[in-house]
């Protein structure tokens, strides 16, 4: 049975129906499909234009789902929500088994993206230092886990697993878009740098985070930041 995954398309108007965009959940699902060696087809969804035939086709084929990622597999009812899709993929395509039984690996970096988003969206300059510090604190916790508790190159050993597929897109958002507010992952967090380098050795990661996707992450955050971009430029 064929597998189709509807994912958010590029922020570039000319590439929106051709390339993967900046959605971490979409990136997560694409990585998992690649790690499992599943043959799949990507359909790229433009969330900015909902009065087009492309949008109507998306809603029709997904039976009324309105937000990617959405997975279609044969005659199974379309599946939305990234966590639900992940569970279905693990149950349906059991090899390789990507589950982690390491409780700490499963929650490593769980607050990272929310702290990053608060910092990036903040439009009150006086709050930036506090929000920046909160983000650095979360990165420090992740760095310590990778350095002292991780049993291998990745969160739970020497192969990418589900927790990595959840974390890596979020780290890539920080790495690629943080510079919009003069933020980079501190150099002293060497374990995070090593983790990202090791991920780059994996085909599933490299084929997901190609240069256009990295560029799109930055473009997406430019749009999301709004007034915070202006306040940052005045500092």
Automatic annotation (TrEMBL):
Compartments it resides in: Membrane
Main subcellular location of this protein, as a coarse class: membrane
Domain GST N-terminal: start-end pairs: 13-97
Cited InterPro entries: CLIC (IPR002946), CLIC_N (IPR053823), Glutathione-S-Trfase_C_sf (IPR036282), Glutathione_S-Trfase_N (IPR004045), Thioredoxin-like_sf (IPR036249)
Reaction(s) catalysed (UniProt annotation): chloride(in) = chloride(out)
Keyword Ion transport: yes
Membrane topology, record value: Single-pass membrane protein
Superkingdom per UniProt: Eukaryota
Keyword line: Chloride, Chloride channel, Ion channel, Ion transport, Membrane, Transmembrane, Transmembrane helix, Transport, Voltage-gated channel
GO annotation, cellular component aspect: chloride channel complex; cytoplasm
Family annotation (Gene3D superfamilies): 1.20.1050.10, Glutaredoxin
GO molecular function: chloride channel activity
UniProt cross-references to Pfam families, sorted A to Z: CLIC-like_N
Family: Belongs to the chloride channel CLIC family.
Stated name of the protein: Chloride intracellular channel protein 1
Organism this protein belongs to: Stylophora pistillata (Smooth cauliflower coral)
Lineage: Eukaryota, Metazoa, Cnidaria, Anthozoa, Hexacorallia
Name of the gene encoding the protein in the UniProt record: CLIC1
